[in-house]
UniProtKB/TrEMBL annotation:
Keywords: Signal. This is Phosphate ABC transporter substrate-binding protein. Gene3D superfamilies: Periplasmic binding protein-like II. Residues 1-28 form the signal peptide. The lineage of its organism: Bacteria, Pseudomonadati, Gemmatimonadota, Gemmatimonadia, Gemmatimonadales.
Amino acid sequence: MPESTRSRAAALLALALALLGSAPRALAAQEFVVVAHPSLKVDVVKQYVVQRVFLKQADRVGGVRVTPVDQSVGSAVRDAFSKRVVRQPVIEVRRYWQQQLWAGGERPPETRTSDEEVLEFVRTTPGGIGYVSAAADTFGVKVLRVK
């Protein structure tokens, strides 16, 4: 094999390995868990219920009044949550809230800028519900299974 071909092959292999090495980190940033104040009586919540809570079309889960909290607009965890649970990209969710505000409807959920801030809100707010990256330390909150 000529030297230039070997060099190109080695460079491509190095690039492929670098991309594969970063894939788990990128995937981990997109994974999330839904968390709630420990007083919430349920462990499993249907996806459409969580969707309705975050669009403020419902305010109870398992008979308990809940207060949703969102992550900041540019966060990967909010992007993943919006696509998988709310079933709309963040830009569409923002458009929904602009329409609600214009029509005099509900205000969007409060936002926090990090997993730690969301967890603090949920821990200290009876009925608090939010979402954080799967790698976050969820001590002191209830992790809900969304089905």
